[in-house]
Amino acid sequence: MKTDIVDTPTPIDHLKAISSWVSSVQDLDKLLHLIIESATNVVRAEAASLLLMDTKTNTLYFKVATGTKGKEVKEFRVKLGEGIAGHVAQTGQALLIADAQQDSRWMRTISDRIDFETRSMACVPLKINDRTIGVVQVINKQDDSRFSQADMDVLEEFSNLAALAIGSARSLEQVRQENQDLKKKLGEKHQIIGKSLILDKVLKDAQKLSRTKTTALIQGESGTGKELVARLIHRESPRRDKPLVVLNCAALPEPLLESELFGHEKGAFTGATSRKIGKFEAAHEGSLFLDEIGEMAPGIQAKLLRVLQEGVFYRVGGNTPITVDVRVLSATNKDLKKEVEEGNFREDLFYRLNVVQLDTPPLRERLEDVPFLVNHFLEVFKKETGLLNLTVSQDAMDKMTHYEWPGNIRELRNAIERAVVMGDGKTILPEDLPISASLPKFAGLRVGLTLDEALNEFKKEFILLNLQHTGGNRSKAAKIMDIQRTYLSRLITRYGMRDLA
Ligand SMILES: Nc1ncnc2c1ncn2[C@@H]1O[C@H](COP(=O)(O)OP(=O)(O)O)[C@@H](O)[C@H]1O
Ligand SMILES: [Mg+2]
Question: Which PROSITE patterns does the record associate with it (predicted)?
């Protein structure tokens, strides 16, 4: 019989206990332990435990166990339907046992093995959305009396609390997992492929830049991966968990662009029916990527400059200064320096944006990356279409590595997508690709030709080059070469180039 006097906890003690729960919501094990310990104290039990169901084996395991034998009891598992806990877990109904020794449902094995005398018990189910996921039980009153209905009610409340904690933790874990999967997928989608030295240099510079808050301008032809580089810088930066906000400056007329960037107050202009947060605010503590910055109107250029200089701006129609911490990245396919010289872009803004400049190289300067890119995009489209056995023929690969790719990687990606869709589903052949083959430079030249024959070889190659450049458009090619279209057509026939062009 127990004789030691335990002080009844005061309301302050309970409040203190609860406040420590609040701070441990991130740590489920600790929280459950606190809940069960409090339950033990409140109903003045000798021991308590929380058992959870392992649905694979249909057994209950001890998640938390208090009391003198708490550690030992954790070694055991209880089969569903066996003993008091197994019974409650199976039926979902609470049980109040005055004297376990007299109850046929009680299983003495565990008590005997750990040498713990079980007398009175109360056991309630642990439910999430009406589904029993485990039980909470208390054993032996400290004063050797029996558990009452009032104790059961208290226990039920604690059990609900524990269920709530477990439910939240599981949802949180699910969200975390989903978030991780999505980030992984996004990372894959935005992976930068290529092993050429020239690309490697850009990536190394981007890595270095990511550690700082330095403003960077990414310059390069369309389709060379400027946005990918911006994403890389953000992803590798300490800001990675905050948003990367992207805004295309060419897509919107001036007034709209201004309110997109800085937001507006309700009633700032007709149609401003509510306050709107701008991209700068949305990117707070993260990064803002301003694409096609070369297209920005002069009025907005001035406003952007002020934000970059002072870190402060106003929403359109507002007079409260707003301070944000944003890392600005921008991109252009124009020669921005030239735009400055021609008076189209503010020089002071140019220097603000261009603290560091990264140049994304065109694909024709890194043709050695073509096979890697081809395989990468092939994998992407294989997954998308389910054509898992699709391969690229050597001829098709050769054709792609010899082509000059005026539209850069975007064009390459589109070419492969088209070939996947239009091909036979097994092997991508040269004719599936919407590009025309480049011949090696002056392939037909050799000793033994007359000058006329050699000139014809040159003309043939030159015409091909121009036709490739215009995607096979004869009118455009003729215009570039400054000859008549009809004359071009005659040359194509004469040189038997119909199949190539
Ligand atoms: N090095 C690369 N590796 C993989 N994909 C790339 C690479 N560079 C560009 N791409 C792809 O090419 C397309 C154009 O890239 P993007 O970053 O939008 O170019 P830009 O902004 O310079 O026009 C996108 O589909 C992008 O995923
Ligand atoms: Mg782009």
Answer: SIGMA54_INTERACT_2, SIGMA54_INTERACT_3, SIGMA54_INTERACT_4
